[in-house]
Write a structure and sequence with these properties.
alpha/beta, D-Maltodextrin-Binding Protein, domain 2, 2 domains, 10-stranded mixed sheet, 9 helices
């Protein structure tokens, strides 16, 4: 029995997809890298005829490691994570497109043991929650401790989200909480949770000592005043870094070009929720 023309076409399409993988390493379930960036990128690649499975990950560093090993072809990462990856001997990856700025936000209890960022450098037995291991906030904190060794005086707790916010300043709970998020999105659950609790406050992160650079000399961090609530006097000074879409060595030129074409014409295609 001879295969039909339709059957042959289906086989050819399936073979082409398998020969041109475009696996995406996103982020944790419910996070921006997974539900926004990853979902949008998968949709773009599928529309261009690529098989584009979306994998959950712990965040930036796992994404970069997967790309270098060929376990994924596309992934998202903060620039400070990419800097750590390169300094650890990782091979350079292709930056396909910028995605946006991400800033560090430090939260403390108003009358707690730690009431400022400087306290984390000098208060004995202070603890700071930095999100899940491998997350963007954990990477940023690890980079901060590399640049400013005094931060190592603080004990870290791999905990984040509203759980960390609720436990701030409680017996056995953290004294501070660092999280990373895009600036300006005050609808973010973490901003809302902090602002709803009159006992908590956002504090400045001093730029002293945090002038990190990539191997090519480009700066890793920017220092900005960002809004943390609506109204007057709602800004804090902090560090920000860029996040990027990266392609690994096993990504094909065809797949990279497909994404580049879309991003060049409409940069927000990946970054805006559908």
């Amino acid at each position: 029995m001879k295969p039909t023309t339709l059957g042959l076409a289906a086989v050819l399409i399936a073979t082409s997809a398998l020969a041109d993988p475009a696996t995406i390493s996103g982020g944790k379930a419910g996070g921006t890298y997974q539900t926004v960036y990853g979902a949008n990128l998968a949709q773009i690649l599928k529309a261009k005829g690529h098989d584009a499975p979306l994998l959950e990950s712990r965040g930036s560093m796992e994404n970069l490691e997967r790309l270098s090993k060929g376990e994924a072809q596309f992934g998202f990462a903060q620039l400070d994570a990419y800097g750590q990856y390169l300094k650890a001997g990782g091979k350079p990856l292709e930056i396909v497109a910028p995605l946006g700025k991400e800033c560090g936000y430090l939260v403390v209890k108003k009358d707690g043991k730690v009431t400022s960022e400087k306290d984390l450098r000098r208060v004995k037995d202070a603890t700071v929650a930095i999100g899940e291991e491998g997350s963007g906030s954990a990477i940023t904190w690890q980079n901060m401790t590399r640049l400013v060794p005094e931060y190592k005086n603080a004990r870290i707790v791999f905990q984040g989200g509203t759980r960390a916010i609720n436990q701030l300043g409680t017996p056995g709970g953290p004294d501070a909480f660092l999280f990373v998020a895009a600036p300006g999105n005050l609808n973010n659950q973490l901003f809302q949770a902090v602002n709803a609790n009159k006992n908590l406050k956002f504090v400045d992160i001093d730029k002293g000592g945090l002038d990190d650079k990539l191997p090519d000399g480009k700066p890793v961090y920017q220092f900005d005043k960002v809004s943390v609530c609506s109204g007057w006097g709602c800004g804090v000074d902090t560090i920000c870094t860029m996040s990027y879409l990266f392609a690994g060595p096993t990504a094909t030129d065809k797949a990279i070009q497909a994404v580049s074409d879309v991003m060049a014409m409409s940069p927000k295609t990946i970054t805006e929720p559908k």
